Amino acid sequence: MREAAFVKRNTEKWADIERNPTKDPDELTARYVELTDDLSYARTFYPESKVTRYLNGLAAQMHRGLMQNKREERGRFVSFWKYELPTLFYYSHRTLAVSAIFFLVACLIGWVSAINDPTFVRLILGDEYVNMTLENIKKGSPLGVYGGSDQASMFFQITINNIGVSLRAFVAGVFASVGTLVMLFYNGVMLGAFQAFFYERGLLTQSLLKIWIHGTLEISAIVIAGAAGLTLGNGLLFPGTLPRMESFKRGAKQGLKIAVGLVPIFIMAGFLESFVTRMTLPPVVSLLIIGASAAFIIWYFILYPIQLYRSHQLA
Hints:
The protein is mainly α.
């Protein structure tokens, strides 16, 4: 290719790179790769040309931008949890409310069904679990299931399972949000039936003080994962002024960030379930753990995003 043709073909692209710099790491990397390809071509066929020197200088400038981006990325971890995720939650509060209300209604259905149909609990929780729990109740340890296995193994199994539930609730949103709602409904019915099972045996308070040590974080995270799935589904259902595929991509990106943001919550819930729930604690200590967990969820996912948004508006 003649040098003039090479320059004519790429001039607009190079000018756009100069006129419209970007800090987006993916776009910056893509531009840099494309530019270095052009530079390599120029060095091969026009080694002494002005265009080669021009491309070399432009590539050096972009390389400095990449290095600066890498330094900024070191602080991105803190920035994600401190600013990006809470800001995303501010705009997801309505979706979170829908997820929470739907889950609570499912809990109520599970409770009422279990109270009115003695076979319902077995249908939802399974005969093996119900029989084991009944046997533990006879032994005077109704929640003995939490002390029956190795703590470390239990921690990894529970954490991986809960993270899996979160990701499935998110991915299920691709079915126009219906898949996510089905998962929320099932988990809500199961929780309602579970608590009704202990209520009928006069063990509700004992079960609440035991189970919600870890359940406050775990159940809250499942509801929030439901909001992630609904965000994905809503991107497909309600594109607004955007093209449907662009809206879907945006919803998928936002929902995935929410789902990933829940990983530390599930890790802490797994730790509490494996190492703390099995302990015999005074009621006041259990209430303190439950209260602290609930306060954190309310602050980080509801109050802090509002505070952050207002401070940004006033800045």
